[in-house]
Amino acid sequence: MSITLIIIIITCVISFTAFSNQKITDRLIFYPPAVTNDKQWYRFFSCALIHADTTHLIFNMFSFYSFGEFVEGYFSEIFGSLGPVLYIALYVISQFLCLIPTYVKHKEDYYYRSLGASGAVSAIIFAGIFLFPLQRLGLLFIPIPIPGFIFGFIYLGITAYLDRKGAGGINHSAHLFGALAGIGLLIVFGYAFSDQDLFQNFIQQIRTFSF
User: Fold this and answer.
1) If you write DSSP's letter for every residue of 164-175 in order, what string do you get?
2) In whole angstroms, what is the distance from residue 117 CA to residue 115 CA?
3) Is 142 left (phi over 0), alpha (psi -120 to 50) or beta?
4) Which helix (H) or strand (E) holds 180?
5) How many structural domains are present in the chain?
6) Is residue 162 predicted with pLDDT exceeding 60?
7) Phi and psi of 146, rounded to 5°?
8) In whole angstroms, what is the distance from residue 5 CA to residue 3 CA?
9) C-alpha to C-alpha distance for 33 and 15, rounded to whole angstroms
10) Does residue 48 contact residue 119 with C-beta atoms inside 8 Å?
11) Helix axis angle, 148-165 relative to 118-131, nearest 10°?
12) Where are the beta strands (DSSP E) in the chain?
């Protein structure tokens, strides 16, 4: 069983349990004042195990599975025996990093809460895009599949705009910084644990692009 599938199963079990048990949600949700006052740093990670509703859960886990299986497999090719460890590290560390801006902004905000694995999932998605930027992806509002790197720029632009606007009660900041964390960590892992220059590989693929 893949690491991706194990993470999905654990997340689904805890999320479905939390749907009917508010105490679990309250204990795991990202609540910045609890970190500030009670040093409950675990909330940076535990909030990824719960979701707002079934739709939120399914969307995140489907997106994660779609990219995660591919990225996990390619990590084993790039990093050998370290691949599974670095794949888990990418997911977990990105989950922490994506919430740092949220924490800084809301550390004394007693009305703010955030939940979901969107930040970590964004990291995996953008790691996949970075590895294969010319792979075509589809968007709901664009019927024709477009190269991943173009999708990435569109996604980051829209997410940054929505974050500034504060739209929809969604933590767009986590999506944005999760995506950036995924790319950043992948580059660092490449330089530290692989002979491949992943950044140069990305650039070379972009240079071959033509409409």
Assistant:
1) HHT-TT--HHHH
2) 7
3) beta
4) helix 172-193
5) 1
6) yes
7) -125, 155
8) 5
9) 23
10) yes
11) 150
12) 136-139, 142-147
The type of residue at 29 is: I
User: Is the pLDDT at 141 greater than 60, yes or no?
Assistant: no
With 0-12 / 13-18 / 19 or more C-beta atoms within 10 angstroms meaning exposed / middle / buried, residue 88 is middle
For the stretch 30-81, pLDDT in tens is 999 999 999 999 999 999 999 999 999 999 999 999 999 999 999 999 999 9
| Rounded CA separation 19/4 (Å) | 22
CA nearest neighbour of 191 among 86, 74, 85:
86
CA dist 47 and 25 (Å) reads: 8
What is the token pair recorded at 118? 């969107």
Q: Which two tokens stand for residue 211?
A: 């409409």
Token representation of residue 43: 């909330």
Report the distance separating Cα 11 and Cα 2, nearest Å.
14
Predicted TM-score (pTM) of this structure: 0.93
| Pairing mode, strands 142-147 and 136-139 | antiparallel
> Residue 138: helix, strand or coil by DSSP?
strand
Range of the domain at 134: 3-207
* CATH code at position 110: 1.20.1540.10
Residue pair 40/34 in contact by the 8 Å Cβ criterion:
yes
Q: Residue 175: which of 136, 124, 137, 129 has the closest Cα?
A: 124
Closest CA to 77 of 208, 204, 198, 206: 198
